[in-house]
Amino acid sequence: MTESSATQTKATAEPTEAELSEQTQVRLAKRERLIESGHEAYPVSLPITTTIPAVRAQFPDLEADAQTGVKVGVAGRIVHLRNTGKLCFASLQAGDGSRIQAMVSLASVGEESLSLWKELVDLGDHLFVSGEVISSRRGELSIMVEEWKVAAKTLRPLPNMHTELNEETRVRQRYLDLIVREQARNTVVARATAVASLRATFAGHDYLEVETPMLQTMHGGASARPFVTHSNAFDTELFLRIAPELFLKRAVVGGLERVFEINRNFRNEGADSTHSPEFAMLEAYQAYGDYNQMADLTQELIQNAALAVAGSHVVTWADGTEYDLGGQWDRVSMYESLSEASGVEITPQTSLDDLLAHAAKVGVEVPHPTHGKLVEELWEHYVKVGLTRPTFVMDFPVDTSPLVRDHRTKAGVVEKWDLYIRGFELATGYSELVDPVIQRERFVEQATLAGRGDVEAMRMDEDFLRALEHGMPPSGGMGMGIDRLLMAITGLGIRETILFPLVK
User: Fold this and answer.
1) Helix (H, G, I), strand (E, B) or coil at 264
2) Is 418 marked as binding a ligand?
């Protein structure tokens, strides 16, 4: 046990409202006392000269009881506090979790300053200290304080730094999670590192990053229920986008031959361990590419991100499991793998009645059943659970993929893949449908499904069809959830990978 953590001011992981109110009143009184004594509770600036991580990097191996002669001014949050007679200790934590000990002695600061310290400084306060960098008698890197100032007075106590926060608190009060838990901070860094890697990989392939509308007059680009809102300025119904696809394709029509976007999507659907109503999405389109090239690109994107975050293609998940994202990933046919797993030959020509009978036999229910929906649900029932390695599932039914080109050699399927990692769908890729005549036919089929009550069916989008009629080159496209990418690399659930997830 270090000097700064030997004892600490009482804090509980989940104090009652009465306790919070009482402690807040005490801290409010200390705030007033600070101001009355001529100090600021929330100063606008402080004479900071360096950071806690920089000091630790500069003096990594000081011997016990050493002096450096180097004076610094740093700031951090107090996460441990011990007050004794003539010598007080505080552990200051920087935003990255690194810490340094502040030693406040009567000899260095004087009687009045030491008395104010004991009276007014609490766990959780942001504090500025200046003084010489030393090593304590126990070898802990420290600052012998000559001057201190409260940088921000906290009115609520910190949770106990040695007690695990419950999931409810971690999600609803992520700021506390970031203060207390190293993994929470590391996840934010991992996400930023992964996204930077994605952008670097795209830059290496001459892609342009673009932005497309999130408020749309026509939702499309995916099969999903949208959030609906109203524009007072335009007096019209608007939708939060469910996908950027149709606008990114417009960009390709306009001559931007390699484009990608990383931004938010919104789907008014369920929330579980792999789904969030608001999520970050990557989509990319490449003129003169196809779904095979997009699969190659997707594998490269993910492997590069894993390397950037974990330093290896073999990643270690939060539960300690190792998972290998390296090598060449498997590619399997949806229909062939379903037939093999079920023991019954299922093809694009299998009738709807036969599929309904098979689904009923194994307890698979599908609202608004079509051939494609039944095939996909049966595939999930039989095949998905057995996938362990990263796997591209190739060649989907036509009726569930209205924006995808027909397969060049296989009747009744389209050139689409879904990538499964860790048991969930991480990404999808297409050889894009660029024929405006066939695209119109597909939209008409979707409108028929919508008329039968399918709320996820796409609408007829005349403006998008007009763009296609100006000529879109043969193209490949892909989409991948950023939150799910972090799930694949870290092994965490989706609410852990989103900094501030939507909660009920």
Assistant:
1) strand
2) yes
